[in-house]
Amino acid sequence: MSNLLWEGVNLMMIGMGAVFVFLVLLVFATSIMSSLISRFLPEPQIPSTPTATGQQPPQANDGQLMAVIAAAIHRHRSRHK
User: Fold this and answer.
1) Does the structure show a pLDDT above 80 at 67?
2) Is residue 47 part of a domain?
3) Considering the domain boundaries, does residue 75 fall inside one?
4) Can you tell me the mean pLDDT for 26-50?
5) Is 45 helix (H, G, I), strand (E, B) or coil?
6) Angstrom distance (rounded) from CA 1 to CA 7
7) In angstroms, rounded to a whole number, what is the distance separating the alpha carbons of residues 49 and 36?
């Protein structure tokens, strides 16, 4: 029985070692592919727009928009009391 147990442990260690080696190789392959892709295909730089500097676009219908939002809130609250 001891010999059978020893063979089982041996097989388990070989299997776990093979999985561990495969996972390590997979991590290295993934990191190498990532570095190659970032080197040869860099992300394009998005040019900044004037609105991105903090200027807000003009809002012509601001009063009408506020009235519609207030009416929607009032209707929602009256239905869910």
Assistant:
1) yes
2) no
3) no
4) 87
5) coil
6) 10
7) 31
Residue 28 forms part of a structural domain: yes
Query: The dihedral of CA 63, 64, 65, 69: what is its sign?
Result: positive
Give the alpha-carbon dihedral of 74, 76, 77, 81, to 10 degrees: 150
Number of domains present in the structure of the chain: 1
Q: What type of residue is 22? A: F
Q: Which runs of consecutive H residues, i.e. helices, occur in the chain?
A: 2-40, 62-79
Domain that holds residue 27: 1-41
**Residue found under tokens 């776990």:** 16
The verdict on residue 24 lying in a domain is yes
Q: Taking the mean position of all CA atoms in its chain, how far away is CA 33?
A: 18
Reported as a single tens digit per residue, the pLDDT across 15-31 is 999 999 999 999 999 99
